[in-house]
Design a protein that fits this description.
294 residues; alpha/beta; Rossmann fold; 2 domains; six-stranded parallel sheet; 11 strands; 39% helix; 16% strand; binds NADP nicotinamide-adenine-dinucleotide phosphate
Length: 294
């Protein structure tokens, strides 16, 4: 049976560290960090995610403002809000919750964000700086995964990490971060996607397997080497009438079967998800201290 990597407990410990730093700022008569989030429309997953961020900000003393805009918001209206947040000195960092409605060009909106306030780390300037190993806001989920492995004493140095999925928010950046020449990295990374041939042959070579493909239970036991570390990024709400809520949350990994052969595994929920939230708080603290762009 594998060790469970308790993202919930690790994230709670990080939140306490962040809260202590915010409290010290307030004691020094400084304003606490201020994070703003913009959500357009009523996508259920996005609303849950933004609510979790608000709660986490509240718990750590970070000021939080949420702009809830109707689905009918135009691209120009959203660009004007981005411009306003860019220039508001009271906002240290902000995020535009994705996905945006189809009539809004998300790339155009992200490029309009001031990189110094881009605490999601999605602006091309932050992505470029991350890739070059320069100080940058790191995207929350990949940074959360790196921190989760580090705080679980799992070194990836010299190891074969296989990443399933090449999205701009998870797969690609986590493969860049783990292959960099730096602490908590130096892995040999293989990045797989929907066109990868002989996928299971590759995943079976992984010392660390990171699943971020968005298909519930995709990673089965026959795809995992005995003793591998498995990180499950997927989040899916599956109808389950045996549960009081009528659903259960599951990931991209067939947890019952894979946990029997992995040496360590992240559960869903309670693995990567809580780390994503605290990584955003961490970036907001960096933005408040103006540490990335001095
Ligand atoms: P995404 O943008 O949908 O990307 C999915 C990736 O998986 C793509 O690169 C795709 O390949 C690849 N893929 C799809 N089917 C495949 C197959 N059969 N074999 C191999 N590769 C395949 O997904 P995402 O935004 O990265 O999210 C992935 C999952 O993580 C979702 O469940 C999402 O809800 C979850 N998530 C969780 C957190 C968290 O905080 N825990 C944060 C973000 C996302 P192509 O590029 O070839 O299409």
């Amino acid at each position: 049976m594998s060790r469970i990597i308790d993202g919930k407990a690790i994230a709670a410990a990080i939140k306490v560290e962040i809260a202590a730093e915010v409290a010290a700022m307030i004691d020094a008569d400084l304003d606490p960090p201020h994070l703003a989030a913009v959500i357009v429309g009523e996508d259920a997953a996005s609303m849950t995610y933004v609510a979790s961020k608000e709660k986490a900000c509240h718990e750590s003393g970070i000021t939080s403002t949420v702009y809830r805009l109707p689905e009918s918001t135009t691209e120009n209206e959203l660009l004007r809000i981005v411009e306003f947040l860019n220039s508001d000195p009271e906002i240290d960092g902000f995020i535009i919750q994705l996905p945006l409605p189809a009539h809004i060009n998300a790339d155009k909106i992200i490029e309009a964000i001031d990189p110094r306030k881009d605490v999601d780390g999605f602006h091309p300037r932050n992505v470029g700086r991350m890739t070059l190993g320069l100080p940058a806001y790191l995207p929350a989920t990949p940074f959360g995964i790196v921190e989760l492995l580090k705080r679980s004493n799992i070194s990836v140095e010299g190891k074969h990490v296989v990443v399933l999925g090449r999205s701009n928010i998870v797969g690609t950046p986590v493969s860049i971060l783990l292959s960099r020449k730096s602490a908590n990295a130096n892995a040999t990374v293989t990045l797989c996607h929907s066109k990868t041939e002989n996928l299971a042959d590759i995943t079976r070579q992984a010392d660390v397997l990171i699943a971020a493909i968005g298909i519930p239970g995709f990673v089965t036991a026959d795809m995992v080497r005995q003793g591998a570390v498995v990180v499950d990024v997927g989040i899916h709400r599956i109808t389950d009438l045996s549960q009081a809520k009528g659903y259960r949350i599951t990931g991209d990994v067939d947890y019952p079967a894979v946990s029997a052969i992995a040496s360590a595994i992240t559960p869903v929920p309670g693995g990567v998800g809580p780390m994503t939230i605290v990584s955003l708080l961490h970036n907001t603290l960096l933005a408040r201290r103006k540490e990335i762009y001095t």
